[in-house]
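Incident log, structure service

09:12 report received: a user says their structure output differs between two submissions of the same chain.
09:20 pulled the input from the user's history:
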Amino acid sequence: MDKLSARVKRLGFSQTFVMSNKVREMKANGIDVISLTLGEPDFDVPDTIKKAAFDAITENYSHYSPVPGFLELREAIAHKLKRDNNLDYKPTQICVSNGAKQSIINVLAAIIDDGDEVLLPAPYWVSYDEMVKMMGGTSVMLPTSYVTDFKITAEQLESAITERTKAILFSSPCNPSGGYYTYDELKSLAKVIAKYPQLTVISDEIYEYINYETKTTSIAQFAEIYEQTAVINGMSKAFAMTGWRIGYSACPEWLAKACEKIQGQMTSGPNTVAQRASITALKTDPSEFRYMIDAFEKRRDLVYELMSTIPGFKVLLPKAAFYFFPDISYYIGKTLNGKLIANADEFAMFILENAHVGCVGGLSFGSPECIRFSYAASEDELKEAMKRIKETLEKYNH
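09:34 re-ran on a clean worker, output below:
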């Protein structure tokens, strides 16, 4: 007797975790594998944030918080949004969740009915499509490519909108491409979105600080769609607090209240100690944590130089985040070491099994011709990984 729901049967496992689990299995069997799979900073949490957590324990922050988070934290988030993004939000418009992933799910649960369409510019983060499925919605992919810098146009957006379209969900800076939309590009998208008041924008800005060029723009800056926009952010990437599980949404009042209602029945407020530590992190000048971004930038430049010499890889220089997303379509349809490569996922598995480097195929990102590498690793590991991949492909690509 099959006891599983149709909902869970619709879902797939995260390809990121599938590959990272395979890496762990190989390592457990004594194989020397370099993992460039997970999107996790390889830094420790800054000491000032740790101290705030210790202080919170000493001060007995061990009881339930309000469902949307402590008022002081929501005030700190509102201050950060004004300071860094020129966005005006009140604490009542902010809901603090168990990671930015829950923040996105809260918003989707609040607005999506069965059969509603959600536009996903591809490539997209692997969980977006699965989240839409979970809520009973239908994902509509908007394809991009290496040639278009992995970004959609306003014309492409408008042509995809139907009477069933309820949301557009995207990240800028983008996981996995490492690119972001400029002010002018977002402005052109906002003009289209403003024509369709039923449309909600879910703007995932979790990589905002890990940016090597000009400061990124939030699409919520455009007044004509402020009431249609949910800004998503969190503590994981900028402050190396992945395991602390603090994310947040900033929304119009009607949507913020809906997110609070959903979260109140699902998980209630997030970890209280992590919330108190997050207050300190957000109140600290971002320049205090610049050393992490400087290190990522140095690694980015190193990997770009090395990856550009790998035969068959088309590589863009990422402007933000800590990923490379090369186009490897040259290898699709080829046979390497007796294995026919049908798509990027199979190519990623070939790289893992033959070069002993873990990466993630682009199929679950909506780009079956690309693969994702995280460069949140040491310079020595990155050098060795690129060397292994290059030598393996030179050996088997005839």
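09:41 both user submissions now match this output. Likely a transient worker issue. Closing.
09:42 reviewer note: The first strand starts at residue 34 and ends at 35. The mean pLDDT is 95.
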